[in-house]
Amino acid sequence: MSGEPQQPAVGGQEACRACGDALAVDAKFCDGCGARVLSDEEHYELTQRLEPQMAKGRTWIGAIAILYVLGGVVLYLMNEEISVLVVNFVLAAIQAGLWLWSKRSLLPAAITALVLYVSIQLLNAVLEPESIARGMLVKILFLLALGRAIQAGIEARRLTGARA
């Protein structure tokens, strides 16, 4: 951002809503991140339409973090293996980081959360085949929720015209 004052761009904005960079006069897209500059009315309509679905996606990403913690504690109490607790807490910390990231950029955070979740489930299936059937309903719900979060992120990118 330069030190000189910027005149409002399209919709009266002085800064990009996506990245915070200053916008040039009559900018249609942000030079910093490529996001389309929306009028206040367009931004409001977009937010009202997509935010509920995006919030659900962020919630599920956070729920996975919580379940890693709970699962780790339960498995530790059953087996008294500290390694199980440590692994689950590390996964919970990673998932919590993805949850924080999803507040700024849902699409890459949701894709990363999905890849991590599927990878962990595949690893569990290889190491412990009987784990495949355990918690099947929760696994399906997580996959569907993360899929919806990805769809919401894609739709938001499409509507805002972001390049990144």
What can you tell me about this protein's structure?
This protein folds into 2 domains: 1-37, no CATH class; 50-160, no CATH class. The chain is mainly α. The protein starts with 39 loop residues before the first helix and ends with a helix. The chain has 4 helices and no strands. The longest helix is centred in the middle third of the chain and has 40 residues, at 40-79. Helices cover 67% and strands 0% of the residues.
Strand content: under 5%
What level of helicity do the residues show?
55-70%
- Main sheet summary: none
Supply the number of helical segments: 4
Mean pLDDT: 82
Give me a quick take on this structure.
Helix content is about 65%, strand content about 0%. It has helices at about 40-80, 80-105, 105-125, 135-160.
List the helices and strands and how they pair.
Blueprint: H1 40-79, H2 82-104, H3 106-127, H4 136-160
Helix pairs in contact: 1-2, 1-4, 2-3, 3-4
Q: Which features characterize this protein?
A:
164 residues, mainly alpha, 2 domains, 4 helices, disordered N terminus
